[in-house]
Request: fold
Amino acid sequence: MKKYLHLFAKVIFLFCNGIIACTSSSQTEIQYSTIMYTPDKHSFAKPEEAVVKHLDLELLVNFEDKTLCGTATWTIENHQSEYIWFDTKDLFIQEVKVDDKIVNFQLHEPLPFLGSALQIPIQPYSKTVQISYCTSPQAEALQWLTPAQTYGKRYPFLFTQSQAILARSWIPCQDSPGIRVTYEAVVRVPCGLLALMSAENPQTVSDDGVYHFRMMQPIPSYLFALAVGNITFKPISSRCGVYAEPEMIEKCFEEFSETEKMIKIAETLYGTYRWGRYDILLMPPSFPFGGMENPRLTFATPTILTGDRSLVALIAHELAHSWSGNLVTNATWNDFWINEGFTVYFEMRIMEKVAGKDYADMLALIGYYTLLQELEELNYNEDTKLKLNLEGRNPDDAVNAIAYDKGYFFLRTIEEAIGREAWDNFMQDYFNHYAFQAVDTETFLSYLEKKIWSRFPEAKKRVQPEKWVYEIGLPENCPKIYSQYYREAEEAARAFAEGEIPIHQLQIGKWYYQQWVHFLNQLPSDISLERFAELDAHFRLSESPNTEILFCWFLKSIQAGYKNVYARLQNFLTTVGRRKFVLPLYAEMLKKKELQNLASEIYHKARPYYHYVTMYSVDKLFEQYHIKVASKY
Ligand SMILES: [Zn+2]
Reply:
């Protein structure tokens, strides 16, 4: 499966073919890496032949024409090839130089979702490839916000989202998670704005709009990140802080003030935090994800600002990625669970220490229900395996709960089978052993075999790891979770639905938001609209500051035909771009013929505001119903 680079064999090959005339000094200069590259169908790069090692990026950020222009100078390692291959998408390549000499390059015809291969001729001893280019205004990784789309309403905002294969739309790169590079960057932005990257970051605005960045730990391309806007900084501790628009900085600081505590907890679990600083950037509302684990600088959705820190598990998740994902990375998107399953597991362990076992069990149970629902929706198809086969498909098409929650339960099953102490030792060892490397599913399984199953053969029989990884659905040995908090919510939902007690006697004032969500989900589908109105009036659900409650309430309301919420629903969908909320709400509306027009109207207004990642998913949804959506803006 894997391609090994044999230094000795390659040097012999070069001599025998007379391609190079090595001198003894140049021989010693060649330091071929011995990295194993899992073949990646989502990249044109051929790293076993010629691979990038370091990036020097210079970019000018132009808000007027929505472009980034500049040069990407790659330090490369050529093993035996006449060409080096890059991934690009919608880039205007102006010039390519190899070791400062202009060369003829070939930009191949674009392929669906993969973009265009950039083929550059190189010599055996080529050291650098410099690509001068501009991005397209439609670059899929870039979100250009007008001042009106920000909190402050005065300055524009730019942010990137490179995962899964969008980095190529703003940097010509070898866009595969198995290829890691260090980088430095010089970014020029309009004066008065702050630029931030997944790197060592400034904390104040520069006088001339020029910013210098360094990321000296090697990272995969999907973790390249840039944000530019009217952003300010406030420290939480000596190594962590928050960035946000000035209007949001205090709220943000309050919400995330326990981040240092979380980092310490994470370190006691699985070893030193290796990235220096851990900062959080609060994104504008159109950010498509909950968070993005860009190293040193998590991008976080504002939908987690509730005023009561009830959604900080999301920060635990993004922080956990500093180990699982950023440090030990899925080799290809087929191995996505290697990133997300481990991260959910780690997140649960952090939350157990932060809020107690009962709380963590409730989170696990939510994951379990989400998983069951996902399995049903996917009809137990091939995408319900942990190891995916995404060949010929956009990796974004298979983002679902399987990698996250089935991945989590697989790891929890192992933990329960061998005991927490042995498992935690293994996890620490795993993160150390594969630090700054990519791991595919098979590598993980063989490491597990060597370190765990050889010591616990009986446990292996009980866990059946291959079944978890390579078979559809959920194995029967999945741990059963009990949650007292959930039981309370179920009991209250039953009592309310059956009219046993008046609404003001429901003891739900101090509930966790998850209990609220569960309560709402447990209400029977035939509950009357009067009772919906009663709930809304008493608990002001349509005005909840907690987006998780709000989302669930909207979903239930659409299902029940509770029209009173539609105005607020429209407001929500045109001001929040997080795909997790947006997509199911449109899906639920489209299921009802009488709501399809409303869904189209709202989407028409909201679409220019969404990030590509959200827009792509919602477009596909409308296509399923043969409803035409507005042309690309
Ligand atoms: Zn994640």
User: Anything to note?
Assistant: Confidence is low (pLDDT under 50) at residues 1-30. The radius of gyration is 25 Å. Residues 317, 321, 340, 343 surround zinc ion (CB under 6 Å).
